[in-house]
Amino acid sequence: MAERPQNVGIVALDVYFPATSVLQDALEDFDGASKGKYTIGLGQDRLAFCSDLEDVISMSLTVVQSLLHKYNVKPSQIGRLEVGSETVVDKSKSIKTWIMQLFEKSGNTDIEGVDSTNACYGGTAALLNCMNWVESTAWDGRFGLVVAADSAVYAEGAARPTGGAGAVAMLIGPNAPLVMERKYTGTHMTHVYDFYKPKLASEYPVVDGKLSQTCYLKALDICYGRLCEKFEKAEGKPFSLSEADFVVCHSPYNKLVQKSFGRLVYNDFLRQASYLEATALAALEPFRNVGMEESYSNRDLEKISQQVGKPLYATKVEPATLIPKQVGNMYCASLYGGLVSLLHQKAGALEGKRTLMFSYGSGLASTLFSIRFREGEGHFTMSRISSALDVANKIQSFITVSPEEFEKTMKIMETRYGANDFKPVAKMSNIRPGTFFLIGVDALYRRSYDVKQAEAAANGVLH
């Protein structure tokens, strides 16, 4: 019997987000919102967005081509390609089929996988699918490739500042520097209407914000409990946050991430975790017998749990919040933008560390899983990943537009959704070199793409 692949996980990563962005404090002034509503209340700094030159397909093409080039991966080395997205461009044709243009030139059309869709969970579904393939008897020795990509847009109003856009590509294989600890996974799925997109003529969702937050926190509680049970059964000792060096959460907005970590601390309190000091125990003791359903609406508990967890938040969570706060909600890519942030912020200090990853998609699907970091070997190492991500330069290259320009772009994008027979009107100067862009959509709704030439020659980008 052939030896099964070991240390299967994420071998390489890359991230892409649009250069066009708007500052959240400027949006506060423009919308007439109270000072700090978006920057403190939501915890966001900036919002990146697509003009009509870009969409989920162009972002996916950009991040995949960039990853293949940076890590010198030949298109023939990919055996499975899974896309996670909730941004609907076509109700039948998968985003994966557009990406296949990057592989057809090498003659590789033998690539399994299509798209996974369930709100912000699709990227995790795609990741687990690729992991399962590499670990199965169907694996043919090639890499899996996961793309998590979305353009998150909302109708004019209170939810619009929680938008964003971006894509993350992940190469999956054995001997990975980011090893998935498969036995430590907790999943919770059920039926609920907290956020959904029933209006097929519109890109905007129907959102019950209060319900969605409760569903998110409840899913986190359940997933955490299930992960703890599996860990304790395997290791013979209790699990708590002391067993995890970092925590990365899906981030619709940063304030919810802060609440989520406080929730984990509260769970540890109820489970009598030994790391909690006397002052923390005293502060949380009045909430010991609060019913679980009641606890989700208890503002005092929410405030105290965040205060108790604040020192740990700074070390375990804050390093993973850079891109989510600067780019905004990337839906399926959001969780993995947090992982990229962690690799960027803690480069060189992750060897042997563990991070928890919480993925949530409304509707509802959720999974809490564990990644263990190792330096890796040969061509694929953590140090190479952190360098190739080039996060600082990408953030520094933001083009900041006015809220007026942002609103104008949103109105144009409304007319472009589901439209045909048009060419983009946005400025080419507003996209970075090497970025794929939409040339136009013809009368039969067929979309055509090209790549900005300046870096095509310099970096060998296919087009």
From TrEMBL:
- Which pathway does the protein contribute to? Metabolic intermediate biosynthesis; (R)-mevalonate biosynthesis; (R)-mevalonate from acetyl-CoA: step 2/3
Any GO molecular function: hydroxymethylglutaryl-CoA synthase activity
The answer to whether keyword Lipid biosynthesis applies is yes
Instruction: Write out the catalytic residues in the record.
Output: E86 (proton donor/acceptor), C120 (acyl-thioester intermediate), H250 (proton donor/acceptor)
E.C. no: 2.3.3.10
Domain Hydroxymethylglutaryl-coenzyme A synthase N-terminal residues, every copy: 4-177
Instruction: Alphabetically list the UniProt keywords.
Output: Lipid biosynthesis, Lipid metabolism, Steroid biosynthesis, Steroid metabolism, Sterol biosynthesis, Sterol metabolism, Transferase
Q: What range(s) does the Hydroxymethylglutaryl-coenzyme A synthase C-terminal domain occupy?
A: 178-452
- First-tier enzyme category under EC: transferase
* Any Gene Ontology biological process: acetyl-CoA metabolic process
Residues holding CoA: S212, K255, K259
**Is the keyword Transferase in the record?**
yes
Coiled-coil segments on the chain, per record: none
The reaction(s) annotated as catalysed by this protein in its Swiss-Prot or TrEMBL entry are: acetoacetyl-CoA + acetyl-CoA + H2O = (3S)-3-hydroxy-3-methylglutaryl-CoA + CoA + H(+)
- Quote the function comment for this protein: Catalyzes the condensation of acetyl-CoA with acetoacetyl-CoA to form HMG-CoA.
- Protein family according to the UniProt entry: Belongs to the thiolase-like superfamily. HMG-CoA synthase family.
Know the name of this protein?
Hydroxymethylglutaryl-CoA synthase
| Protein source organism | Adiantum capillus-veneris (Maidenhair fern)
